[in-house]
Specification:
Blueprint lengths: L1 E4 L14 H9 L3 E5 L10 H6 L3 E3 L2 H7 L2 E3 L6 H6 L5 E4 L7 H10 L2 E4 L14 H18 L21 E5 L3 H12 L3 E6 L2 H11 L4 E4 L2 H8 L4 E4 L25 E4 L20 E4 L2 E4 L9 H22 L1 H7 L1 H4 L2 E4 L2 E2 L2 H7 L6 H5 L2
Parallel strand pairs: 1-2, 1-4, 2-3, 4-5, 5-6, 7-8, 7-10, 8-9, 10-11, 11-13
Antiparallel strand pairs: 6-14, 12-13, 14-15
Helix pairs in contact: 6-7, 10-11
Length: 372
Amino acid sequence: MIVGVPKEIKTGEFRVGMTPAGASEFVARGHRVLVERGAGEGSAFSDQDYRDAGAELIATPAEVFERAELLIKVKEPQPVEIDRLRPGQILFTYLHLAPDRPQIEGLMRARAVCIGYETVERADHSLPLLAPMSKVAGRMATQVGAVYLEKSSGGRGVLLGGVPGVLPAKVVVLGGGVVGTHAASIAVGMGADVTILDTDLDRLSYLDEIWGSRLHTLYSSRHNIVRIVTEADLIIGAVLLPGAKAPWLVTREMLPTMKKGAVIVDVSVDQGGCVETTRPTTHADPVFFVEGVLHYGVSNMPGAVPITSTLALTNATLSYALAIADKGWRQAVMDDEALAKGVNLLDGQITSKPVADAHGLAYQPLAEMIGA
């Protein structure tokens, strides 16, 4: 199979969908790998590294898209990339379609086979291709929040961990999944006063067993959220419903009750955000204020640490990508139910029910389309 790796063009994105080590694995199995020149530079991989791995360097993204049967990316395709897709071509990348109507309409027109990393789901409901970036984003969320709490950054002027004789900042984490757990871990490590909310009592019990009195757990009800946001210096949004739009847990009407200069870091922004006033931002222009509360809404947070992120992501995606190339996408998804759940669109039809429901569009079960 001819596998293409274009350079990411989303603002502030420096990751790459395949490392030279990954390219060598594809080449060793008899596949051809086409890498756009400069695709790996942001992650400290040179064109020569890819050439040494057996890949072919391509001058333009248009040629990569034209020649490749399987495209391996990191972020959702931008409009110019969607226009380059063709029917039957395989796109393997993060899609995050629930809050993005223009993207889903473009991909439906393209009629490509669109497999989203974020909806590849195992029987135990774990998300193996989302987890690595969730860990990065969760850890970054606390770091970012600590910086924006500084007065010079627009925040209240509070040190996250406090000092002897001065109370630490109060950090509220909405969601006890992978993002929330890693955000809480860093916040606890920095000495903050941390409360994590979730509706899963088993998960809260697990977190309580890990940290004990170093962290507070709280059931995620509207009543509790309304109360806790008034105390927060930093709120980290870490809510995930796989493939679906995140629910609003913090509403606009709650903001006036919050401390002036408090900070919200909404990691859920790529699924629409769990804070009503969140909107996507970029690394170049990451924050904005609503009602005196500073919002950080960068939708590709791990792109700021591309060396770490690329290695973590490709460690997880490589085996799935190889299966697609070795077997063809149909056989690969028939052999692996987790990968089958990653197929969001096929031949212009939406094959992910959460995505279809998010837009009120028709859902077509994948099994019916491929006769499996």
